[in-house]
Each structure stands twice: as C-alpha cells, then as structure tokens.
Amino acid sequence: MKLTGKVLVAQGGGPTAVINQSMVGAVLESRKFPQVTKVYGAINGVNGIINENFIDLTQETTHNLEQIAKTPSSALRSTRDKPDEKYCLEIFDMLQAHEIRYFFYIGGNDSADTVRIVNAYAEKSDYQFRAIHIPKTIDNDLLVNDHTPGYGSAAKFVAQAFTGVDLDNRALPGVYIGVVMGRHAGFLTAASALAKKYHDDGPHLIYLPERAFSLDQFLMDVKEVHDQYGRCVVAVSEGIADSSGTPIAATMLQQVERDAHGNINLSGGGLGDLLASYVKNNLRVNRVRSDTFGYLQRSFPLAVSSVDQSEAREVGEKAAQFAIWYDADGSVTIHRTGDYSVDYQLTSLDLVARYTKLMPDEYINDKGNYVTEAFRNYARPLVGSLPNIAHLRSPSITKIIKK
Amino acid sequence: MKLTGKVLVAQGGGPTAVINQSMVGAVLESRKFPQVTKVYGAINGVNGIINENFIDLTQETTHNLEQIAKTPSSALRSTRDKPDEKYCLEIFDMLQAHEIRYFFYIGGNDSADTVRIVNAYAEKSDYQFRAIHIPKTIDNDLLVNDHTPGYGSAAKFVAQAFTGVDLDNRALPGVYIGVVMGRHAGFLTAASALAKKYHDDGPHLIYLPERAFSLDQFLMDVKEVHDQYGRCVVAVSEGIADSSGTPIAATMLQQVERDAHGNINLSGGGLGDLLASYVKNNLRVNRVRSDTFGYLQRSFPLAVSSVDQSEAREVGEKAAQFAIWYDADGSVTIHRTGDYSVDYQLTSLDLVARYTKLMPDEYINDKGNYVTEAFRNYARPLVGSLPNIAHLRSPSITKIIKK
Fold first, then answer.
1. Residues A105, A114: contact at Cβ < 8 Å?
2. pLDDT attached to residue A284
3. Which of A81, A110, A139, A273 is catalytic?
4. A375 and A333 in one domain?
5. Does B345 share its domain with B371?
6. Are residues A12 and A47 in the same domain?
7. Do the chains contact at A160 and B274, CB–CB below 8 Å?
8. What b-and-e string marks burial along A47-84, b requiring 16 or more CB atoms within 10 Å of the CB?
9. How do residues B262-312 score in pLDDT, each as one tens digit?
10. Could you give the ipTM of this predicted complex?
11. Are residues A32 and A172 in the same domain?
C-alpha cells in the first residue's frame, strides 16, 4: 500500500547539538519518495501544530539543509508544552485538516507520548496515518535505546570541560565543583570521567542523582582527595537529592531564601555556589571555586561528536524509511551491535514513552561517588575523538639552598 | 658577547589554552643555542623559584614538548603570588645561586613587573643576566601589544558559547544572560559578538566594565530588545560597575549577604543569577536564564584558535632569540602589520608592567551597550576559523483553520 500525502516534521523539548541532523535526515529521506507530496515543518513543536504554524521544507535547498544539519539547536524551534489528551486531539485535527499522512516528532519521552496519543486518535478515526517518534535527549534517559542522539555531543562538552578545568586546577590548586545538567539520570554528569587519562586526573569525585547525596559524606570525600593530591575536582549533577528524595539545591536554597526574606531566585549558579561555600566553611582550603555549566552544554558548536552526528542523522532517515517503506508506527531505537557499531529498530511507542531510564548499578561505584570502568567502556565510543593531553616528565633539580 | 649558562622558564597568573605553546617555544628555541647549558622550568611560577622547585626541561623529548604545547593550561603550574621588592630579591638570589643567565617569565602585567624588578637587581649587582617577559592573558589588557596570546582562544570560546546559547534561545525564547570573565577590561565579553552572522543573532546587548552600568538602563534595554524579537541574549562582564566604580556584583551581593546574616559566598553564579531575578521581577518575561562561563573559558581544549596558537608559540621563540642572540632585556610585544599579519618587538618592561589596557572608545557604541564594527574588524582575525551556522528559509504555509 502506498499512502500518498504530506509529511510533517517537528522538534520538541530541549535542543541538542545534533537535533537538526535528525530533522534533515527525515526531510531529505522523505523527499525521495514519490508518494510524499510535500514536507512541512511545524514551528515550535506541537505548539506550532495547534496554532497552524507550518513552513514548507520542500522548498529548502539540499545544500542549505546540509548546513542546517551541522548547526546546533532546533532549527524548527521548540516548545515546553506537554500535551494532554485534549491538546493531542487538537494536534490530530490539525494534521487531518492539512492531510498530513506522516508525522515525525523528534524529542524525549514526553514527545514519544504525544506521538503515541495522536496515533491512537488516528487509529480510532480510521484516518490513514503513520507517526514516528525520533529519539533525542542529552540526558540519555530513553528506555529501550542503548543511548540517545544528543547525548554524545553533550557528553563530549562535559568531558572536555572537565579536562580543561582539571588542567587549570593543577596549575592553581584548590577545590573545584562543576555542576552538570541532569535532574534524574546521571549519564551526562558521569561523562565528566570520559577524558581522564592520568591516574591523578580529575574529576576525582562524581555525584549522581541515582545515589542519595549526603553533605557529610561529600565533605569527607573532598577532604580525603584533597589530602592526597592537594587539590580536588568534583562533578555534581544538578539533580542530586538527599535520602528522602529532596533535591539538595532545594534544601540548601530554601534556607537561604528564608534567611533573606526576599524574592531572590538562585536557580542558576545556586547549587554549585552553595556547595563551594560549604566546603570553604568546613575544610581548610583556600581556593574553592564552582561553575554551573548550564546552557553551554547542549549546543556548543565546537563540541559535536562525529558519532553522535552520524547517528542523529540516521535515526531521522530511518524514521522516514520505517513509515513510508514499511508503513509502520513506533519509536526509532538505537541498539549496540558491536564495539563499536549500532543498528536501528522500530519499537512500540508504549515501551519508550513517559518513563525515564536511569544509570544501571554496574556503572556506579560502591561508594556512590564515582563511575566504573563499565561505564567508561559504554560511553567512550559515543563522544568520538578527543584531543590528546600531555604532561611534563622532567626530573627535579637537586636543591642546593633549601635542602 | 656570548653569555653562557642556564635558562629558566616559568609561567604565572591565570592559565590560558595556549600558554604552553609559549613555554615550549622558549624551551625548544633555547635548546638550539650552544651557550645554553641547561633549560630549567620553575614549578608554580615565582613561588617555585623562591622555594627552589626546579625541573630539568633539557631532558624532555621534543615530541612530548610538542604534545604539551597543544595541551591547555600551564604545564609548569602557576601562582597567584604578587612579588614585592623583598620577594623579587629572593628570586634574584636563587637565580644567581643556580647560575641562571636567562629568565623567561610568561604572564600578564604583574609578571612583567616581577621581571622588571628582578632585572634591576641583576643590573645593580653586575650579574650578567637577561630577563624577558612573554605576554599572556585572556583579558587582552597588556599595554603596547595589539593583542595578547591567550585572548584569541578564550574569545573563540566566548564567541562560540554565545552562538550556541543564541541558537538555544531561538528555539526556546526568553531572556538569557551570560556572564564573561574580565574585571577591568571588556575585550573578552566583547568577543561575544564575533560569531554574529544574521541581523537578529544574539547577543543583542553587551555590557562592559569600561562603561558605568545602570540597572534601570539595563532593564529598559532588555525590554526594548525583547519587545522587538520576543527574546533577548545579553553578554555581561563580571566586572561591570556602577558610576561610582563599585562592582554591580558587590552592590547586589552585599545586600543579599546582609539580609541573610550568614557567611554565604555567592561568588560563582551570583551576578548572573541576581541580574536574572531582577529581570524576572521587573519585566513580564516567563523564561529568564543565566550562566556564568567561569573557568570553562580559559582552558577548553576544543576552543583553541589556530592564530592564537601560532602567536603564542612565536612570542616564546622570540623571547629566546631576543635574549640569546641580541643580548637584550624586555617584554616581547605583538604588533599588527597587515590584515591579518603581525610582527614581534622587544619593548621596555617599564612600558608593559603594572598598567592595564582598556577597550578604546571606538570599540564601544554610543549607548554603551554594544560593540562597534571597528571592534569586530579588530578581533575577528584573532579567533581563527569558526563553524558555519545556517537558518531555515522555507516559506510559511497558508493557514486554512486559524486564519
């Protein structure tokens, strides 16, 4: 059966450095099929659909699309809208009004759920329609997938950021705390260990949302590392929480806000700054610094992983193939088939939508303050090549004055 | 005259992504001269000298030195010590004890001053000695120099960071504030404009320490941009100060600390967070975000400028040539000779030491909230090549439902 009609592509959720590869992959692959009459793009994800904000991607030159593929962030723009049933019905009505027969939505587990609900309306209405979710998230937290497009490049940024700050910390020693994105899954924070080469390279400690965070234990850990190396570099996930599940950022910030009697919003650098002052006030360390990597992590043009780029492109192309060749619905998922190789499958939307994948236990050390070799073996291929780092190996000169 | 003896190389102040190029340039060039008996490195800058903490760089392989040249941050480590006269005398005594005849110190204007004082002691004591300051600072604030090694790479990071966050802000609109290093000179913050391509690209506003900062004017500026584009990306120097010269960070933070009755140190993300909450509380904008780029700026391995790399290497090599061939003291300075080409001169230490170069008026717009084309022409060659960024140009689809 050849389902003739229009394709609609949209991008949802937080942008990544390679999400445009998926969009361009889906668009160019769709344009090859004679039964595709037009390829539309929705501006601002599902929000653009219900507001009928479409553009005609059929009129883009292939050359410009290839340039856009290499441009970070979502060229079709995005939305934080989380559609409920009613919203999804509006989406479906609009798709039907424009005779959209193929819908490709690039996003995380919320986007997968939207695709699932919209597709259910189509089936109920007997409207001939294929809907595919294309995976994307820097958090690497989609079920079924070995890993997700967007993660490799964000991980490359985080790994290189820690290489840089660790070299900086060697030159001017002290305690350094870098706060990495990731509210529930620690994969991105764990990537801080991927460029580690020498045994004393930082980060020396890594705290993930998958393990309860204790300020006391944190302080003891930092002291131990600092006593050993005279310095300590720490990677902390923004989502770390205490044993009751309350985010540390919330517990520490509430205290500040209550004391201040004001409307001070400390969301940006808050957690890092407060952990830094906690170390400064409780350990005898002169130089304590913190940075919150923030929005730099997900769209830095110079930290794109070549592996991530290729895979993001392919999940987009595969979406078009699964829908148009195979007349199927679902979520494109990535599966590791070798060291290192992958293949793509179409998985039921039910299995990918809504839920979050967390770091498996084997990727976290027993103390809950670092990652294992298993994690490094898993994640290292995803970031592509990294520049070589070297240290001096010169012998010391015998002292003649200060013996 | 051929002055036979040892060379000592040291690195001071904040690390940069290319400071090892200068070190390696000085070491390899020195090793070519027969009158150089050994090449020492001081660990931790001047602090390593007075503590007699030397290593023998003569024993490094050329290959490893070339790897180190490409490694960011100071391989010989650094120091924040700011030597006074007594400290400089200790330095001189130690250099004399080890029969150091050539001293190359890579650093900013404080380091130049140290070289100047140590050299004066040598002259007073009739000790045959050549001392050269090799320029380095991401702040680009050394007098006489057209620009300084380290700036180009940090500027590349800042330019690319703003490219990324601007693309991100297009996808999920709001107000974004990025805080850039630079307490007195605004060159690095100004670099936020270097990758701007399309007329509506951010940053839309740039605030520099060279102009008095007014919270009221800032708010009006942000509102105007946000009204026009539905979003606003702002670059702010960490050193912005009010008309009395008081840093904005200090005025806003003092208030918080006083209210809090505590020891809360908000140095890290403080300024950005407080500016963000100020916008949120005073303008009707839903999404206000801020990041403080912090230590990521000066040693990110993937943001090294090829131009910066070459020049950092050459100032190191020229230092050895000026001292050993020409038997001269001074500071190696960079001079622009074409568009784009440079040459190096040896300048009196008096003219480079101590003082700070600020952004000239012609690089700042009349309103004091952006940079001029003159600045972009000046700084663009220094960052080397940047990845191309492209936008979609598809026509909109005529609405059939929501007309």
1. yes
2. 86
3. A139
4. no
5. no
6. yes
7. no
8. bbbbbbbbbbbbebeeeebebbbbbbbbbbbbbebebe
9. 433 334 668 998 899 899 989 989 899 999 999 999 999 999 999 999 999
10. 0.95
11. no
pLDDT band at A252 (very low <50, low <70, confident <90, very high): confident
Rounded distance between C-alpha atoms, residue A279 and residue A283, angstroms: 6
**Binned average pLDDT, 10 residues per bin, chain B of 403 residues:** 91 97 98 97 98 98 98 97 94 96 97 96 95 98 98 98 98 97 96 96 98 96 98 97 89 54 49 90 91 95 98 98 96 97 98 96 98 98 96 96 83
Phi, psi of B156 (to 5 degrees): -65, -45
Contact residues, chain A, for B268 at CB < 8 Å: 269, 272-273, 276, 289-292
Tokens 């100032």 sit at which residue? B315
Same domain, B321 and B246: no
* Interface membership of B257 toward A (CB under 8 Å): no
The stretches of A230-269 forming alpha helices (DSSP H) are 248-260
The number of C-beta contacts closer than 8 angstroms across A and B is 298
A388 shares contact with chain B (CB less than 8 Å): yes
pLDDT, tens only, B59-77: 999 999 999 999 999 999 9
Write out B64-94 in H/E/C secondary structure: HHHHHHCCCCCCCCCCCCCCCHHHHHHHHHH
Q: How far is C-alpha A355 from the chain's CA centre?
A: 15
Q: What is the pLDDT of residues A314-354, one digit of tens each?
A: 999 999 999 999 999 999 999 999 999 999 999 999 999 99
Looking at the fold, whether A230 and A333 belong to one and the same domain comes out as no
Q: What is the pTM of this model?
A: 0.96
Q: Tell me which residues of chain A, numbers 268 to 297, contact chain B at a CB-CB cutoff of 8 Å.
A: 268-270, 272-274, 276-277, 280-281, 289-296
pLDDT score recorded for residue B254: 55
What is the distance between the alpha carbons of residues A238 and A208, in angstroms, rounded to a whole number? 9
Residue A84 and residue A248: Cα distance in Å, rounded? Answer: 30
A139 assigned to active site: yes
Residue B329 one-letter amino acid:
D
Chain A hits for B160, CB-CB cut-off 8 Å, are 300-302
CA distance A194 to A158: 9
Which chain B residue shows the shortest CA-CA distance from A71? B389
Distances (CA, A) of B222 to B207, B226, B285: 12, 6, 10
A-chain residues within 8 Å CB-CB of B390? 64, 67-68, 70-71
Number of domains in chain B: 2
Q: How far apart are the first and last CA of chain B?
A: 87
User: Sign of the C-alpha dihedral, residues A152, A153, A158, A160?
Assistant: positive
Does a structural domain hold residue A297? yes
CB contact under 8 Å between B280 and A294, yes or no, is: no
Nearest in space to B393 (alpha carbons), one of A61, A353, A282 = A61
